[in-house]
Amino acid sequence: MFSRRGFLGSAAFAGASAISGRAQAASIPEAAHMDKVTMQPPLQPASGPDYRPVVTLNGWSLPFRMNGDWKEFHLVAEPVVREFAEGMKVNLWGYNGQSPGPTIEAVEGDKVRVFVTNKLPEYTTVHWHGMIIPSGMDGVGGLTQPHIQPGKTFVYEFEMKKSGTFMYHPHSDEMVQMAMGMMGMVVVHPRDPGFRAVDRDFVFVMSTYRVDPGTYLPKVNEMTDFNMWAWNARVFPGIDPLPVRLGDKVRVRIGNLSMTNHPIHLHGHAFAVTCTDGGWIPESAQYPETTTDVPVGAVRVFDVLADNPGDWAFHCHKSHHTMNAMGHDMRNLIGVSRKDLAKAVGKLAPDAMVMGEKGMAMGTMEMPAPDNTLPMMTGDGQFGPIEMGGMFTVMKIREGLARDDYRDPGPYQFPKGTVAYEIDAPAAEPAKAPMKKMKM
Ligand SMILES: [Cu+2]
Fold it and tell me: Is 230 domain-assigned?
């Protein structure tokens, strides 16, 4: 049994096998660093109990070292440059070279020691959201520990008491540090590898930013009017697809550390929410869904049987959250006569372009944008423009993918005769229903 004595007791009281946590923590492990923004291969367990590792969309899992029976991780809080998608880089704060930080994976019952080094210009802490740990390890600056000053390293030590999906983020100048991208996910695998086992396991955290067109820094005081809707600080078309083998049991773990809820929708399948940051949902309480709302400060995990091959859109169902930066004070011009409007506008601004009278589908038209600004709607599919942005990607279900092959399998080869098609035939006369005059 894990006890406080294991941390603080003298050798005489702690017994021969338990080493004082503080003495052991004297040597700080090397901090791994990531310079890539694409999904890294699963980090297979090299020692200890077996588990099926997760993959992090556009991210990675933090390597650890064993020190006695402790799993040791090293997080470095620091300024980073994160590419949201090709053509846009943003100055954020994060961990170990990226924002969000790496996923921390462990096994139920593990003793975990996390070193946190602060290379930010201000103090920070790390709070372990949803995890059942001693109060003094909870990372609330001022309340449960002193803030970690710049240049200092603190140690968090706890036992992974339950399996599930959790999050980490600062509880120290929280509004600024979270708006700057400081967050990550924690996955604790069940000790029994057969418990709710799946074939593929994806994880990501949702965050939002206000980065005005042509700028490189989020406005941290923004409360509601965000314009970058991100999964793991990436926006479409920068978000990795989810490659899945036909017939796989798939788990998707979604954290939300943004300022609003996100109804997350998968096409072509029904899934069940099986876990939250509070724990596993009993099978008797699960029910089929195609969209699940992920509230602010919460985790939702769904399991789905990938039995329907194809390219399946996977996205937030708030239509404004599948757009990239745009002005929100745009008028609705649907139905307005372009000729009259152009004449009127032309008098005031001869070079102005009037758009939007038939909707805002852009097709191949690309508007000039300031530097470091993504188009509002973008992306190309095999049949034309996809016109999405923000929280949108594709679950690609294919026959015969290898077990741990997470490479993009490319566009789906639709079997002949299975794609919606245009018909060139005369339209039928509209049916005329006989109408009786009604007395009013
Ligand atoms: Cu959303």
Answer: no
Distance between CA atoms of 340 and 27, rounded to whole angstroms?
74
Ligand 1 centroid distance, CA of 248 (Å): 27
Rounded distance from Cα 174 to ligand 1 centre (Å): 21
Q: 299, 91, 303, 332: which is closest to 215 by C-alpha?
A: 91
Q: By residue range, what is the domain housing residue 98?
A: 30-198
pTM of the model: 0.86
- 194 and 337 share one domain: no
Structure tokens at 431: 């049916």
* Whole-number pLDDT of residue 435: 67
Q: Which residue's entry shows tokens 């690609």?
A: 396
In a domain, 159, yes or no: yes
Question: CATH no. for residue 187?
Answer: 2.60.40.420
Q: How far is the CA of 260 from the centre of ligand 1 (A)?
A: 7
**189, β-bridge pairs:** 107
Q: How far apart are the CA of 200 and the centre of ligand 1, in A?
A: 24
Question: Is 296 contained in some domain?
Answer: no
Give the model confidence (pLDDT) of 122-138 as tens digits: 999 999 999 999 999 99
pLDDT in tens, 49-73: 889 999 999 999 999 999 999 999 9
